[in-house]
Specification:
Elements lengths: L12 H14 L7 H6 L3 H5 L8 H9 L3 H19 L5 E10 L26 E9 L5 E8 L4 H16 L10 E3 L7 H9 L3 E6 L5 H4 L7 E2 L8 E10 L2 E10 H30 L7 H11 L9 E6 L7 E6 L1 H11 L2 E6 L6 H9 L1 H11 L15 H27 L6 H9 L3 E6 L7 E6 L4 H9 L10
Parallel strand pairs: 1-4, 4-5
Antiparallel strand pairs: 1-2, 2-3, 5-11, 6-7, 7-8, 8-11, 9-10, 12-13
Helix pairs in contact: 1-4, 1-14, 5-14
Length: 480
């Protein structure tokens, strides 16, 4: 798929892609720093990749040799191989999108994938590369990674990601197997829901609760436990409603845990607003303002702007001249209780799966958090990282993203395998434990010639020993 090696190359294109994936999993580095990192590992002994092959220019030449068609073929082949080799469940997947800040120069016209837009990392000064990713509900393994210009929003890119998912899925699953896709409200639109139906996909998503006041007004007595064992403290009401152009099944849920968190968060928001109002009132009381009444009212509006505060706090600004302005306010406890009863802890799920029981719909939707969790390592500079990205052309960016997503898939497959063997840990912890299994070289004096060298593994903790056995690392351990 990637073609053979060049006559003057020290390794094939596929070897360079595999090396790049390995580095992203173990210790993300730039291609310029790759050789120094590789020399401090056992990689050279295990793979016998020649030192001359590790020059950063060979990596870049290899990336140039993989066109978009070949890259797509490689990604689809890897997705099929992972699903078959590890028996991944493919009936339900989760989709999410994000973007990554890059340091590509503003005048660089060779990277149209990097554009300024809504920066989810808050780096509004940098150009962005968008990534749509679909992961399996079974293990959170990414099977689709779609690069798009950072200027495009999630709603417009959604159909492209879905089409690529369908193209890959039809090659993996049985023809009569349904696929359910979970996604958050950021991808909602009537056109996107129609596109899902035309693509033959089922879905589990969410709706903005404030758009459905009739559902929010239902008394708590109408909500029953969803599944006390799987989802303790979660109650719900299963019904139908008009949603995005059609009548659909919706489930109003209330989580006691989420309710408590939102209540604490609103306490903090209210307390912050009250402190600012008190400071403003004190300044006005001292006559320390030259601003007119309209300017002071604008400041009050800014203080009480956070969501729902205007339902709980009322303010009165008396006087007309700056020296006469006086501020009073009231926090209405009854209004606060009504607000909590109406909104706190509530979520509205929407699905095309009329045949699923409510607990399965909840579980399907919550799998979307696996996709969100998958982005966290990609934004961590030390774990399966998207950064540092030292590529300045559109094509190299796409290849870079491709092997980053493959590296993330490898890490999650490792985590999934470890969990099946009784070790439930995050990707970060798993990789940290494996990094602690190290190889050392002991030098012994000899009667003549060079000292004798003996390679051996350092002492392992019980967890490391377990991981050593799970992944069969004895195959790569130094022989005595």
């Amino acid at each position: 798929m990637t073609g053979g090696r060049r006559a003057d190359a020290n390794a094939g294109v596929s070897t360079y892609l595999a090396l790049a994936c390995t580095n992203r999993v173990v210790a993300p580095r730039s291609k310029l720093a790759f050789a120094d990192w590789w020399s401090a590992t056992a990689g050279a002994r295990v793979t016998r990749v020649p030192w001359a092959a590790l020059d950063h220019r060979w990596f870049w030449d290899a990336m140039d040799a993989v066109d978009q068609a070949a890259l797509t073929s490689v990604e689809r082949w890897l997705a099929a191989a992972m699903a078959a080799e590890f028996g991944l469940g493919l009936s339900s997947m989760a989709l999410d999108m994000t973007n990554f800040a890059t340091y590509i120069d503003s005048g660089n016209e060779k990277a149209p994938a990097a554009q300024r837009g809504h920066a989810k990392q808050k780096r509004t000064d940098l150009r962005l590369v968008g990534l749509g990713m679909v992961v399996t509900r079974d293990g959170g393994v990414p099977l689709v990674g779609h690069v798009y210009p950072g200027i495009r929003n999630d709603v417009t890119i959604f159909p492209e990601v879905i089409d690529e998912l369908v193209a890959r899925y039809r090659g993996l699953a049985a023809e009569d197997q349904d696929l359910t896709v979970a996604f958050d409200a950021g991808q909602n639109s009537a056109d996107n829901f129609t596109h899902l139906v035309s693509a033959g996909l089922q879905f589990a998503g969410s709706l903005p609760p404030s758009d459905y006041p009739d559902l929010l007004a239902l008394p708590s007595s109408r909500l029953t436990p969803v599944d006390a064992e799987r989802f303790p403290g979660l109650t719900g009401h299963d019904t139908r409603a008009e949603a995005l152009g059609a009548g659909r099944r919706v489930i109003l849920t209330h989580s006691a845990t989420l309710h408590a968190k939102q209540s604490r968060g609103f306490d903090q928001t209210t307390g912050k607003a009250v402190r600012k109002l008190a400071e403003l009132a004190a300044r006005l009381e001292r006559g320390r303002t030259r601003r007119d009444k309209a300017a002071v009212e604008a400041e009050i509006t800014k203080i009480t702007r956070p969501r729902w505060l205007n339902r709980v706090i009322t303010t009165t600004l008396a006087g007309d001249k700056p020296s006469q302005l006086r501020l009073t306010w009231t926090v209405h406890d009854a209004a606060r209780r009504e607000l909590e009863a109406e909104l706190s802890g509530k979520w509205i799920l929407v699905t095309s799966r009329d045949d699923w029981p409510a607990p399965e719909v909840v579980a399907g939707y919550r799998s979307q958090s696996d996709a969100e969790a998958g982005f966290r390592p990609l934004k961590d500079p030390h774990v399966v990282s998207f950064s540092p990205m030292h590529h300045w052309t559109d094509h190299k960016i796409r290849v870079h993203v491709s092997y980053c997503v493959t590296a993330l898939a490898i890490a999650h497959l490792m985590r999934r395998q470890a969990r099946h063997e009784g070790l439930d840990m995050s990707v970060r912890v798993l990789l940290a434990e494996l990094a602690g299994i190290q190889e050392t070289v002991l030098l012994y004096p000899s009667t003549g010639g060079r000292p004798r060298a003996r390679r051996m593994l350092t002492e392992m903790t019980p967890t490391q020993q377990h991981l050593y056995e799970i992944f069969g690392l004895d195959r790569y351990a130094p022989a005595r």
